[in-house]
Amino acid sequence: MRPANVHESLASSDAARSRRVGWSFVASYAAAYLATSLVFIAPLLVTLALKVNALVGTDRGADSLSLVASVGSFVALVANPLFGRLSDRTTSRYGRRRPWLLIGLVGGTSGIVVVATADAVWQVLLGWCVAQLFFNALLAALVAVLPDQVPPEQRGTVAGVLGVCLPLASVGGTYVVNVFSGHELAMFLAPCVIGGFFIVVFALVLDDRRLEPTDRPAWSLRQLVSTYYVSPHRYPDFAWAFVSRFLFVLAYAFLVTYQAFYLLEHLGSTTAEVPHQIFLGTLVQAAVVVTAALVGGRLSDLTGRRKPFVVAASTVYGVALVVVAVAAGFDGYLVGMAIAGLGFGLYQAVDLALVADVLPETGDAAKDLGVLNIAGALPFSLAPALAPAILAVGAGSYRVLYVVAGLCAVLGAAAILPVRRVR
User: Residue-wise over 382-391: b if at least 16 C-beta within 10 A, else e?
Assistant: First the structure.
């Protein structure tokens, strides 16, 4: 459990790059990654929308949810790179990543408690901001484990395994919420309790590395500002990877943020039906994602290629969103979600490996991944801000909203083409 004593960032360590990881590490890492996805995704998919709807009703629900989701995503946008930088500089005897895994879990769960017990939208907003702040501390440390511990030739395979985690967490989260439907506090806290167990186990077994206080870089205002910036001129591949991820996640954010309202208003579902329908949709999607992610990640490592997989994944996901948009009934929605699973699985498998391959060689892996994670957080702030305007132009049609989302995914495919450092 004690971290090894090293004198430099593992991201630039030759030993770390050459030592292959075993399946016991992959299993524990994947379990923690799935658990982290679970605590994030359960509120986003179901409980946050249902909580807001219970407080203000359907007429004001979409606008109130937009406020909560957009402000929370802005907090995530700021928090992820900041905690990544702090993790890179942590000189704790327990390592650089382990302390933040535990701090993030405890703090984030506290925020979820506030959301669950709220009796006004402003309290939901406050709790969700606290949850986003600390869960992003957890996420920043956890994602940095990939470049810390996994050599380049295994990253596609490991990223493929991690790519399975989000859809499994989506299925697990919606299932848990469905099981505890009618028990509001349990709906919110059960994912945190279940996920927290696996995060704690991984934190205990992680062979984390220590940073000696004498090796910690000096802190300055300029470095603080640079926490949120990587030069696109010096690192163009990183910049294009950022743009591509931003557009793909924007498409995903439109889907998941407004999925409940799409079912309620576009397909005419009842409030009681929505949790079960979202569970079925995520189950269908996950069944395809698991195969696509595992096969895609392995093929990417065997061929040594990343870009074709990302391009194909983004394009397929765009097509899937159009299928959802034109669906006339629940069966059509399920078909769209299945196609989305193919695109999402390929993307989850390969994008993280591509990102790890184009990281700047600066020794700030967690910080740089935090900057890139802005591309994963900012869309969840912009989507709720843009959606009302898109819905207004489209006369309140969620069909128009999801066609726009599909276009974003296709543009994300085009944005990865200029990357030159990886094939």
Answer: bbbebbeebb
